[in-house]
Specification:
- The chain is of the alpha/beta class.
- Helix content is 38%, strand content 19%.
- The chain has 10 helices and 9 strands.
- A 6-stranded parallel β-sheet has the order 1-4-3-2-5-6, with helices on both faces.
- Helix 2 links the parallel strand 2 and strand 3.
- The chain is globular and about 55 Å long.
- The chain starts with 6 loop residues before the first strand and ends with a strand.
- The protein binds adenosine monophosphate.
- The site of adenosine monophosphate (AMP) has 17 residues, from helix 2 and strand 5.
Length: 281
């Protein structure tokens, strides 16, 4: 097996490696992750490989995007296994800072996002996009990539980060990658590891319901009526709670319009696990 890529954990050592790439006039792609890597993450790396000379994967479980009652403590941390997986997809460097390296003792800055950050996830996780935007801004400033790849799996996050990069004139391009799914349609997620075997059987109903909902909207059912039906369908299938099922404008995440691309987005609970998914209409 190929040797795992080098891991750096201080900004100084990261910058030294990036400087060697730049001296060789090589372009750099960043794939930000929180680790517990699965095939979806590796697909992002595969896409990154086609777009830049060097691929850096960051692994950082960002405390600032979790509320105190959320799963920060039990979020899986598997750095060694992650590094082994990244060896198989030819990653050049792993950027894995500790929390103290990322957030100094007197860290006092937080990016506040409006626009596409309003509603959906923010109605249930109000702290979330501030934390994501802040850490991604730092990651972009640390790695100075030409491009950063994010999954459509977290569609609102992708849209929010595009907005941040445009608003702050950050000198990189954000590229979205399609969602990688299991054969039964369940979107791969590090949080799927929390599911019991019985919940895992129920989980694909989320994607199935979104597919039926999008088909209904395409054939003329009003989007709120179709969304209500999808809401009922996931509960019928065994999900325990629905945070939202919504049809939105695909670019702005504002209200949908017939003559513009639309997206169905949903977040639902299966016991203690919260799953999100989305598809184009
Ligand atoms: P995470 O480690 O879950 O924060 O995700 C890191 C990146 O991987 C984000 O850009 C996610 O959108 C992306 N990602 C997570 N799951 C998938 C998936 N099933 N397919 C494609 N990208 C994904």
């Amino acid at each position: 097996m190929t040797r795992p890529p080098p891991i750096v954990s201080t900004v100084a050592s990261l910058r030294a490696v990036i400087a060697t790439y730049r001296r060789a006039q090589q372009t750099v792609a960043l794939v930000p992750t929180m680790g517990a890597l699965h095939a979806g993450h590796l697909d992002l790396v595969g896409l990154a490989r086609t777009k830049a000379d060097r691929v850096v994967v960051s692994i950082f479980v960002n405390p600032k995007q979790f509320a105190p009652h959320e799963d920060f403590d039990r979020y899986p941390r598997t750095l060694e296994a992650d590094a082994a997986k990244l060896a198989s997809v030819a990653v050049d460097l792993i950027w894995a800072p500790g929390a103290a390296e990322m957030y100094g003792e007197n860290f006092s800055t937080r990016i506040e996002m409006g626009g596409p950050a309003l509603g959906l996830e923010t109605d249930f996780r109000p702290h979330f996009f501030g934390g994501v935007a802040t850490v991604c801004c730092k990651l972009f400033s640390q790695v100075t990539p030409d491009i950063a790849i994010f999954g459509e799996k977290d569609y609102q996050q992708l849209t929010v980060l595009r907005q941040m990069v445009a608003d702050l004139d950050l000198p990189l391009a954000i590229i979205g990658a399609p969602t990688t799914r299991d054969a039964d349609g369940l979107a791969l997620s590090s949080r799927n590891a929390y599911l019991t075997p019985a919940e895992r059987v129920i989980a694909p109903a989320l994607h199935r319901s979104l597919v039926s909902c999008a088909a209904a909207i395409r054939s003329g059912t009003p989007h709120d009526q179709a969304s209500t039906a999808a809401w009922a369908a996931v509960l019928d299938a065994g999900f325990t709670k629905v945070d939202y099922v919504a049809c939105r404008d695909a670019a702005t995440l504002g209200g949908p319009a017939l003559n513009r691309p639309r997206r169905m987005l949903a977040a639902c609970w299966l016991g203690k696990t919260r799953l999100i998914d989305n598809i184009p209409v």
